[in-house]
Design goal:
The complex is a heterodimer of chains A (377) and B (316). With 377 residues, chain A is of the alpha+beta class. Chain A has one domain: Orthogonal Bundle (Cytochrome-c3 Hydrogenase, chain B), CATH 1.10.645.10. Chain A contains 15 helices and six strands. The longest helix of chain A is centred in the first third of the chain and has 29 residues. Chain A is globular and about 70 Å long. Chain B has 316 residues and is mainly alpha-helical. Chain B has one domain. The chains are: A alpha+beta (377), B mainly alpha (316). At the A-B interface, helix 4, helix 5, helix 7 and helix 14 of A face helix 5, helix 9, helix 11 and helix 12 of B.
Chain lengths: 377, 316
């Protein structure tokens, strides 16, 4: 077997009682076509080897064979839960490369839509994580609320999952006042419902037993493995691209970067739950201060990027996405590289799963919030 | 007491009807309870409020092909669901539904039910071993690992009640509670009992042996069609028996005002089953080692102390 990740660990308890357990590619706990070969001693994991690539689609190569606008709808297919962040990253990268102007109203709407998408992604994670822990009801409760976000986004983007809404230089169409008031109404309603989530899960003693001190990531490891997003912040490192390298006007809004010092599953849970509230704050501010004006600046019909290179970092729901484009001056990119958060975040799983119980390993995998097409690209 | 052939046939027909009807109602109820707890309606299409949905599912399951994996241990694989289900027919014998409605009054009825309850674990173990599937085997192994952790507190619970009543007969125990239900004397014991029977019936938050997010479907991963539905039938029947036992041991059996005894028994049984469903659809799953230490370090001492105190009070 050709292992993408070479094991750095020798089995010190090789015996007849050890066995290899294939977790996936079809397994309810992996949330996608991820395969993890677990070397087990009873219920304990001696070694975990993630096997990637079942969903590899050559996203980078495909983008290199397309013009810049052609690649746009394809980028969002990587992270189907945070599609607008990917959409935004590609648009911003090309805008940075070609130095297109973006009207302020378009920037604000981009922020609103992206943050709504982030909430919906976190909601789905919340449900799926509890599903990994064996609780079924949270999943459907989260989907009920997520449905409202999908309806809102469907109205402006036309799709419900793999959105392609942003265009170079702005947006294809403006949103109306009625939509903005409905977003505000949703925020108000959702704020009322959030305490119910905490009542159901956060205070539950079984949930605490299952997530507290499980899968601890030390800050040193978190930085060393290149983790990002809520996992990095759950380990006590305050880094958020929206705060530290602001884009699309995030510096205009007042929001906090939630950090948890514990680094365990509960810490990551708390960070994500706090992030939902911060996203609500950002949307409120963006709607409150939305300027009038056009939503699209003048952009040439045929986009030929000037020769050069650009790297654009965006905070997706799962962490730091970097899109790196090298242009040779033609209408197609010469080289595209995606630095995706899930791939880096998964890299620490082998280390964390070692010596854990099977149930804990699945809790850890759930707390990492994997989107497998994003890992495989 | 004489046993006639007619009586046995009558009992078997009655019990088969009860087991089948109970499963139909409970599966429907479970889906409805789950639905309403999750802001949805549950089954609505087949029959009024989807009451016939389980029947439709049952017909589908019966008509399905029974797939036996190539590498499976065929006799064990086929035997396992039967081992799981058959003890139920015997375990329902001493269960009193009212002062007169009882299949057969046995003076060791309680012991019989507890002993037959163990066979369910054997069925799960056979299924796990016979499937030749690692997930199924883990599920079977978990079922065996947990058995001591809950059976001993459960037995101590039952012993305490026996000590209070002085009889192994379920009928006598129910009659002894004519004025005051045991749950008022023994509230802690009642909680211990509910936890242990949730464990015994493999219900969430203790559904280790099927833990769908960890073990795919646990011990019944390889089962389809009728094999799967027999396990299902067994699970819901064990729930019924466990709740029936709780009714007799703690809730005064058929005693209650106005309504006839059978109605009271059924109301109490289904209330306890509803409680167990409520657990399932609210709690995440406990980890197996946490459950084992909970069983040994909390449930066992708690029930033992309770036992000793009860003995002391009774001696005074």
């Amino acid at each position: 077997m050709n292992r993408p990740i070479q094991p750095t660990y020798t089995l010190d308890k090789v015996g007849e009682e050890n066995f290899a357990l294939n977790l996936g590619p079809q397994h309810p706990g992996t949330h996608g076509v991820l395969r993890v070969v677990l070397h087990m001693d009873g219920e304990y994991i001696l070694q975990a080897d993630p096997v990637l690539g079942y969903g590899h689609r050559m996203q980078e190569k495909i983008a290199e064979n397309m013009t810049y606008p052609q690649a746009l709808p394809y980028v969002c297919r990587m992270d189907y839960l945070g599609a607008l962040s990917y959409n935004l990253a590609w648009v911003l990268a090309v805008e940075k490369l070609c130095q297109f102007e973006v009207p302020e109203r378009a920037e604000a709407i981009r922020v609103i839509a992206t943050e709504l998408n982030r909430i919906s992604s976190h909601l789905l994670w919340w449900g799926a994580f509890l599903l990994d822990l064996g609780g079924f009801t949270p999943f459907l409760q989260a989907l009920t609320d997520r449905e409202q976000i999908l309806d809102l986004l469907e109205e402006i983007t036309g799709s419900r999952l793999t959105y392609c809404y942003f265009r170079f230089g702005g947006l294809p169409s403006d949103v109306d006042e009625e939509w903005l008031t409905r977003v505000l109404a949703f925020i108000k309603e959702f704020r009322d419902r959030l305490p119910r989530y905490h009542d159901l899960v956060t205070g539950n003693v079984i949930f605490h037993h299952r997530s507290k001190d499980v899968g601890v990531i030390l800050p040193f490891d978190a930085a060393g493995y290149g983790l990002s997003g809520p996992i990095l912040r759950g380990s006590g490192i305050e880094f958020d691209v929206r705060k530290h390298e602001p884009y699309s006007g995030y510096d205009r809004y007042d929001f906090e970067v939630p950090v948890d010092q514990n680094g365990d599953c509960l810490g990551r849970y708390n960070v994500r739950m706090a992030e939902i509230e911060q996203s609500l704050r950002i949307i409120e501010q963006a709607i409150g201060s939305i300027p009038d004006g056009p939503v699209r600046s003048k952009v040439p019909k045929l986009i030929k990027a000037p020769a050069g290179e650009v790297a654009m970092a965006v905070e997706t729901p799962r962490g730091q996405l970097v899109i790196y484009i090298v242009s040779d001056g033609s209408k197609k990119p010469y080289r595209v590289k995606y630095r995706v958060p899930s791939f880096a975040n998964l890299s620490i799983f082998a280390k964390m799963a070692r010596g854990q119980l099977l149930a804990d390993a699945l809790a850890i995998l759930g707390s990492l919030d994997m989107v497998i097409p994003e890992v495989d690209r | 007491m004489n046993i006639s052939l007619l009586g046995i046939v009558g009992y078997l027909v009655g019990i088969a009807a009860l087991v089948g009807l109970n499963a139909v109602i409970l599966v429907w109820l479970e889906r409805k309870v789950a639905g309403h707890m999750q802001f949805r309606l549950g089954p609505m299409e087949v029959g009024p409020h989807g009451i016939l949905q389980t029947l439709a599912d049952g017909i589908k399951l019966v008509s399905k092909q029974l797939v036996i994996p190539d590498e499976a241990d065929k006799p064990l694989f086929l035997l396992a669901p039967i081992v799981s289900l058959v003890p139920i027919f015997a375990a329902m014998v001493p269960l009193p539904f009212s002062e007169t409605v009882q299949a057969w009054e046995l003076n060791i009825g309680l012991l019989l039910i507890i002993a037959l309850g163990l066979l369910n674990t054997l069925g799960i173990l056979l299924a796990g071993w016979g499937s030749n599937n690692k997930y199924a085997l883990l599920g079977g192994a978990r079922a065996v690992a947990q058995i001591l952790a809950y059976k001993i507190p459960l037995l101590i619970c039952v012993m305490t009640i026996i000590m209070m009543t002085g009889s192994f007969s379920l009928r006598d125990i129910a009659i002894a509670q004519k004025d005051t239900w045991n749950v008022l004397y023994q509230p802690i014991l009642f909680i211990v009992y509910i936890i242990t029977v949730t464990l015994e019936t493999n219900r969430s938050p203790f559904d280790f042996s099927e833990a769908e997010s960890e073990l795919v479907a646990g011990f019944h991963t390889e089962y389809s069609g009728m094999g799967f539905s027999l396990f299902f039938l067994a699970e819901y029947s064990y729930m019924f028996i466990a709740a029936g036992l709780a009714t007799v041991l703690f809730l005064g059996g058929w005693h209650g005002p106005w309504l006839p005894g059978v109605a009271w028994t059924l109301i109490k049984i289904y209330s306890i089953i509803f409680l167990m469903m409520w657990f399932r659809w609210t709690f995440p799953r406990v980890r197996i080692d946490q459950m084992l230490s909970f069983g040994w370090k909390i449930l066992l001492p708690l029930s033992l102390i309770n036992f000793i105190i009860t003995a002391g009070v009774l001696a005074l």
